[in-house]
């Protein structure tokens, strides 16, 4: 895998390309980008035929391992990996350790293993079990084992322990990965942990970079889940910059659970290249990201200070406009806010399907807009437009 930076905007936003992607040698990925979020191998509420109606679907499918660990025997028995097992076709597969949309339970890691949680409960994975699970899934990229069970309240002692464990897991996994015949074409992304401790973050970064991996995942600031939406990325900008300055420029950087559009732009500015798309699940995205539209020509359909609206609310009962003016997604071309409101309040599955179709297309389009803005040297205009809608200063 090769990563090339085309240009850098502002303080560190990187417009780049990923090529030579193993079995996907004909594929070129443009960054910053997001991946297609899935649960158990399927996009939430969407079958393959419905997903094909969503424009701009990413070529990289994100599969959290915690959803798959309890089914390892079945997946391994199929022998062809999760991509074919879930009928996703010839898409690139990335496996993270945890689901960014679900809060991870604290205190379940130890010096020999990490705990992952699926619907059937906890599965404890040591380095040998972790690699065997990867052999069953057969991802193109995968995140290395890590103890990311830290947050702002973690002590320096706990942060040091997290780094010690993560580096131990990395070395144990590296040896098994290199010997595995099934993972010869898979790329490993090293996990950068250490909580809010700058010294431990630096130690983890330098030690991980010394192992010469294919990319890096920056985590260990929180425990994922819905509360992540209010996480103050701006408050740790200096800490993230201190990490980025030690990472090689020719390797991609991943950060999970960066959800709000203003936070995404902040992370891009700090040098993050790849994101997940677990954000667009509950509310309807109504973000205007057309930075080239003159101010007096922008849609007036902005009844919220944020990038989302809750279509469960009574005020949409007789609102027969599309979810977002000028949106060309399948939902907005065929249905109204009132109808989606009706479906959601009557518990019809179609409501969730129409909502996620709209949200995915909007979110994927947002990342395309980021790349276009950077190519046109208008990243600051896009950031200003988004910040106006989110109330970010």
UniProtKB/TrEMBL annotation:
Molecular function in Gene Ontology: metal ion binding; tRNA-guanosine(34) queuine transglycosylase activity
Residues the record lists as binding Zn(2+): 327, 329, 332, 358
Presence of keyword S-adenosyl-L-methionine: no
A cellular-component GO term for this protein: cytoplasm
Keyword Transport recorded: no
First-listed, main subcellular location of the protein, grouped into a coarse class: cytoplasm
Annotated keywords: Cytoplasm, Metal-binding, tRNA processing, Zinc
Cofactor names: Zn(2+)
Source domain of life: Eukaryota
Subcellular location as annotated: Cytoplasm
Domain tRNA-guanine(15) transglycosylase-like: 12-388
Function statement: Non-catalytic subunit of the queuine tRNA-ribosyltransferase (TGT) that catalyzes the base-exchange of a guanine (G) residue with queuine (Q) at position 34 (anticodon wobble position) in tRNAs with GU(N) anticodons (tRNA-Asp, -Asn, -His and -Tyr), resulting in the hypermodified nucleoside queuosine (7-(((4,5-cis-dihydroxy-2-cyclopenten-1-yl)amino)methyl)-7-deazaguanosine).
Family named by the database record: Belongs to the queuine tRNA-ribosyltransferase family. QTRT2 subfamily.
Protein name per the record: Queuine tRNA-ribosyltransferase accessory subunit 2
Organism expressing this protein natively: Dreissena polymorpha
């Amino acid at each position: 895998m090769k990563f090339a930076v085309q240009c850098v905007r502002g303080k560190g936003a990187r417009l780049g390309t990923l090529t030579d992607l193993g079995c996907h040698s004909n594929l070129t990925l443009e960054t910053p980008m997001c991946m297609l979020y899935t649960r158990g191998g399927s996009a939430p509420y969407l079958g393959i035929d419905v997903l094909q109606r969503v424009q701009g679907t990413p070529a990289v499918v994100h599969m959290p391992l915690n959803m798959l660990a309890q089914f390892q025997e079945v997946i391994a028995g199929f022998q062809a990996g999760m991509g074919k097992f879930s009928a996703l076709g010839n898409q690139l597969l990335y496996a993270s350790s945890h689901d960014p949309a679900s809060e991870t339970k604290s205190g379940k890691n130890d010096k020999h293993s990490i705990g992952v949680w699926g619907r059937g409960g906890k599965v404890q994975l040591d380095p040998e079990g972790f690699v065997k699970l990867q052999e069953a899934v057969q991802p193109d990229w995968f995140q290395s084992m890590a103890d990311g069970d830290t947050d702002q309240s973690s002590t320096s002692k706990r942060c040091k322990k997290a780094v010690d464990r993560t580096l131990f897991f990395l070395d144990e996994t590296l040896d098994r990965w290199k010997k595995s015949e099934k993972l010869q074409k898979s790329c490993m992304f090293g996990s950068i942990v250490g909580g809010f401790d700058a010294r431990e973050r630096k130690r983890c970064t330098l030690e991980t970079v010394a192992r010469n991996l294919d990319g890096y995942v920056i985590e260990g600031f929180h425990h994922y889940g819905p509360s992540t939406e209010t996480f103050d990325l701006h408050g740790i900008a200096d800490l993230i910059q201190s990490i980025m300055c030690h990472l090689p420029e020719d390797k991609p950087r991943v950060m999970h659970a960066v959800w709000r559009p203003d936070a995404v732009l902040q992370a891009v500015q700090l040098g993050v290249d790849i994101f997940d798309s677990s954000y667009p699940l509950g509310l309807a995205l109504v973000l205007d990201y057309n930075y080239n539209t003159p101010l007096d020509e922008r849609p007036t359909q902005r009844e919220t200070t944020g990038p989302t609206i809750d279509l469960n609310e009574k005020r949409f009962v007789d609102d027969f406009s599309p979810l977002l003016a000028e949106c060309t997604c399948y939902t907005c071309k065929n249905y109204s806010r009132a109808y989606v409101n009706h479906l959601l309040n009557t518990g019809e599955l179609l409501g969730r399907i129409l909502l996620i179709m709209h949200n995915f297309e909007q979110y994927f389009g947002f990342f395309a807009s980021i790349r276009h803005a950077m190519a046109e040297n208008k990243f600051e205009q896009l950031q200003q437009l988004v910040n106006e809608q989110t109330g970010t200063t």
